[in-house]
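dumping this here so i dont lose it
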């Protein structure tokens, strides 16, 4: 009998040099990460640039910013998001389904009853925080409340307007509470803080325009801008808990704040304005900590081809 032939040795790739499939995978991951980073920059900075240009046009023209322009301007982030998504959705053929998924427009986790309850509870929480802030501020002398016979009916009449204003706030929330957090990935607080900073910066051109046009004192504008950050954390917690943008949409649409319940909001002193903002911020931050999910946010019903969250390097 002859000895069996010795097995032939197949040379492996030299250390440190990946095989062709691994190289392709690595290149694909790098391209996906670079694309995600570009999308994050565009979503966080694009709306700010557009709104700055719009506010600059009002300043140059010497025309006060009308209320309708504020309502329409809330759709600037959604338009930027749509532009970012347009190429991705066209490449994958997702169309409307991909847009719905990226914007978190489905009802999220749980039953329909839980979805309705979460939306109602989020809006109620914003209203309650505004009322409690006004009451505490009046107690410490920071503001004077409107008479009860005027305040109570006014609040009850304004609450249904949240459904109408939701048509406006939807344009903001699909980016700040859905598309951008999905791209950031990671834990809740990390992404929520990044979004809060971006959302606060987004409001600055409008507030600066109000100050320059004499429509708002500088102290009021500064306090109002700083108060946006804790509100953003609460809205992000609502959306992340449900896995849907809608609870944040309706909560953001509540048509009054603590300052709006004052007898004369323009007469509030600067130090009193910071007191009101501090009380409101503490309440919103507490609510955010109570609502925020313990585990990473779950965004359900990701369609084929829609970009899944890509964790950004710390």
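and the seq i came up w/
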């Amino acid at each position: 009998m002859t000895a069996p032939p010795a097995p032939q040795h197949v040379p492996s790739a030299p250390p440190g040099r990946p095989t062709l499939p691994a190289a392709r995978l690595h290149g694909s991951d790098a391209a996906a990460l670079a694309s995600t980073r570009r999308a994050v920059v565009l979503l966080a900075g694009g709306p700010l640039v557009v709104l700055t240009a719009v506010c600059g046009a009002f300043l140059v023209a010497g025309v006060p910013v009308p209320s309708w322009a504020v309502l329409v301007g809330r759709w600037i982030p959604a338009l930027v998001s749509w532009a970012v998504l347009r190429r991705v959705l066209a490449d994958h053929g997702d169309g409307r389904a991909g847009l719905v998924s990226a914007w978190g427009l489905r009802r999220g986790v749980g039953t329909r009853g839980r979805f309705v309850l979460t939306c109602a509870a989020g809006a109620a929480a914003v209203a309650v925080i505004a009322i409690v802030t006004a009451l505490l501020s009046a107690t410490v002398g920071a503001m004077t409340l409107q008479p009860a016979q005027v305040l109570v009916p006014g609040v009850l009449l304004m609450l249904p307007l949240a459904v109408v204003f939701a048509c406006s706030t939807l344009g903001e929330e699909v980016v700040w509470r859905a598309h951008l957090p999905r791209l950031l990935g990671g834990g809740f607080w990390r992404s929520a803080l990044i979004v809060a900073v971006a959302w606060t910066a987004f409001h600055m051109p409008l507030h600066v325009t109000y100050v320059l046009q004499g429509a708002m004192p500088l102290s009021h504008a500064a306090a109002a801008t700083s108060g946006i950050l804790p509100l953003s954390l609460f809205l992000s917690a609502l959306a992340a808990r449900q896995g849907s943008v809608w609870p944040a949409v309706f909560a953001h649409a509540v048509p009054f704040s603590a300052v709006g319940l004052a007898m004369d909001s323009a007469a509030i002193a600067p130090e009193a304005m910071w007191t009101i903002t501090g009380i409101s911020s503490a309440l919103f931050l507490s609510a955010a900590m109570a609502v925020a999910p313990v585990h990473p946010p779950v965004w359900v019903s990701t369609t084929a081809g829609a970009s899944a969250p890509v964790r950004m390097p710390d």
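Confidence is low (pLDDT under 50) at residues 1-25, 300-314.
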